[in-house]
Amino acid sequence: MEVLKTVNLKKYYGSGEGQVKALDGVDLAVEQGEFMAVVGTSGSGKSTLLHMLGGLDRPTQGKVIVDDKDIFSLNDEALTIFRRRKIGFVFQAFNLLPVLNVYENIVLPVGLDGNTVDGPYVKKIIEALGLESKLTSMPGQLSGGQQQRVAIARALATKPSILLADEPTGNLDSKTSQDVLGLLKVTGQRFSQTIVMITHNEEIAQMADRIIRIEDGRIVKGGELYA
Asked: Selecting from 3.40.50.300, 3.40.800.10, 2.60.40.1930, 1.20.58.1000, what CATH number does the domain 2-221 have?
């Protein structure tokens, strides 16, 4: 079943001869529970695509459909709420709050949405990511790999149906990158998450179920389901 789809998605900047077509008619479908990697060179449009999929920026034209809802038909406030409840984000920069400990960082988005923390569920995430002994530690006391694990746990804590990861291993060494991606794949399967990951690392991309290649704002390989 399709959980995420784009229809003729375009994002243009500027006009005339100087116009930049960051996305130029992207049609894409992602199955529920799929782990998909999007690869491409710098400036190919892959990060722009991820921002559109997550509702972080509005397109020039086209649709992004999540769970049969055109997210850009929503006003800004409704889109923010929808994004917070349906989509989790993991970025290259860990974006942990330095004044909160590990556990407080993990459950922060749950509280922001006015919900009660699902203790048993969060405990399972913490155990799956090997963070049990770090819950009272501050972000500054953690290694890069540990901080990224906390960022993944925070993204999973709200039970999003879709997890979007933008170069999640960009600040990590090769071994830690493999470990973190392995954990991301395992937790995605365990908690029924659909994962879309942006990466420039071909080796990392091979861990995904499907690889999409984007060039000059267009998908040139892998756009069809299981192509």
From this structure: 3.40.50.300
